[in-house]
Amino acid sequence: MTYFQTNKQFLMEYNQWLCEFMEESIQTDSVECLRINDNILFKLQDQDESEFYTASIYDPEYEATQFLDGVNFDNTAYILMGVGSSAIIKQILKNKTEASWFFIIEKDTKLVKKLLEEIDFTPYLEGKLQRVVFITGDMEDVEKVILVYINSLVGYYFLQTDILRTFATFRIDREFYEEVTQLLINTIRTHMTSMGNSINDTLMGIRNELRNVPIALKSHRLQELKDAYKGKPIICVASGPSLDKQIPLLRQVKGKALIICAESALRVLLRNGITPDIVGILERGPNSYEISIQDLEIPEETALMGLMVMDERIPRAWNKHVVPVFKDNIAHSRILSKALGDMGTLYNGNSVAHLNFSIAHYFGGSPIVLIGQDLAFSEEGATHSKDSLYMLHADPQVLENERKQLQEGLREDVGFFDRTVYLDGYYGGKVRSKELWRQFLSWMEHLIAVLPTPLVINATEGGAYIRGAVNMPFQEVVEIYCQEPIVSIPELFSQLPPVSVESDLKERLVNMIDALNEELSIMEQVSQFAEEILRDAEQLQHELAVDAGKVFLLDMRAGRIMRNVEKLLKQVLKKPLLMFFFRPLLSNYHVKMNPISRVSSVERLQLILTHQTYFLKRLIEAKKEVFEVYEDGVRFAVTELGFDPDELSLNVQPKWEVLDEEEDEQMEEAY
Prior knowledge:
The protein is of the alpha/beta class. The protein is built from 25 helices and 18 strands.
């Protein structure tokens, strides 16, 4: 058996396609390598056609030791760019913990195959978890693979990561590896922030969703609007500083293109005599009502399409055209939509611009046109349209404290999301932006990629460049695509089927309550299990504090506690609703636990128990808070719809599940 075949058997779980592709299609005869004792390095040509070796030809093992000096081998993830020499890979495999992940990114697939042909990695891979992933190919291929892993459960391991670049990546394909480095940093950063840092914000959204259930049951379903404007131009209006120059043209297209505006752009359009067809809203905060629509006269021909997490006052203050939106990539919202009778869901991100794009896609719009989507500061330093509440000279009727709240998020370099970054510009070069907008941009590009649309046009004429969208002046868009009349919102809604009748409401409420009882029963079971583990952990902590040397059956008891915590984590990880609520706790736990992944002393055990007991206590407390919000929300919805809250109420009973052996093994690998 060749070295390639030997290595292949230890890599197939996460590298099967690549291994088979290399075996069938990749020839390595042209690859020059040099063997130094038990290691190899490569002879390559840089962009100036100068030959060089990818590592020391005298002592690559010593060079690898120097290269890895300072690397924390208690980390749970490592990313190596460029194969460089086998010595570096061997040392990482030798010193890392078995559970940690190791990504090796190499643009040239031939080098990876040659490495696996020349070096036997059996001593480092045999009998261990398969956590080594080779990523090869061009930027598009690399990006797809990285996004899949980082946005999965594996992403938790990358909360504690070393990113390493070999010498060769600075001499060959330098721009490629710099782009990959930035991609990794941005992706891991976005993944970390998407986990959230508090359950309170999540509970606020759930409270709003449940209080908006009566609105949803008495409104048209999103499903009824599928492809309602198929092949028609739809303009998504954001409130960036470039919007001001597009206002005159936007007036001209009213009635010839569907205008969907962000909540922050609503006042701007109304102040300039433009009535949007649809307003998208997703903010859940306590001041969102005051900021969005307070004191506004809502036009009768404008529909509201807001996420269910919106302030309950907003849909109740709107006209008759209201369509609550359930978010497909949020477990609770998806479950609620199905329980209420398949209301229809939308996949979108954390910005109202993402919501509006998803609406336009759902409607079948073509082209979808973006304006005011700057995602960057203007040359004058402005962040939004001059008529937006975000600007200092905004509507004087808005309370001063609300204006200050809006401005707080716009200070330069205050906090993580407000740190200054530079993005590729609409007209080339770089434009000044901030981290929050960079993440919004990344999400917009993701939506354009995963929600296929015949044509997406960026007619912002300023700000950041948006991949996947075609740059085109708004004047040209109007002349080419916005010439024929479209159906108005009142006309569209008049053609929709009637909304639910009273006799249907109770059945749908009962279905919702049954679904919530089913989901929350698993949370109750997990909470009770956490209480059991917590009692054992606190007892062991106490005994260790008194006299660690006299603890009876220390290894067995500590091992049982840690295994039970692992079982509990697996239960949380495999249930979308539990993951939705407890994600901030999990990320906090992983950040604290990753640096002490090995139990090498009593002191480390005590530290691990401290983190585990904190996690268990917070999970138990969070479960109580979740139940209170659900009980209050269900009672509110039942009462507002005129039914008896004592008859229709939650009745959660713990649901005990035992993993079978096969499922347990699968969860072990996933985790």
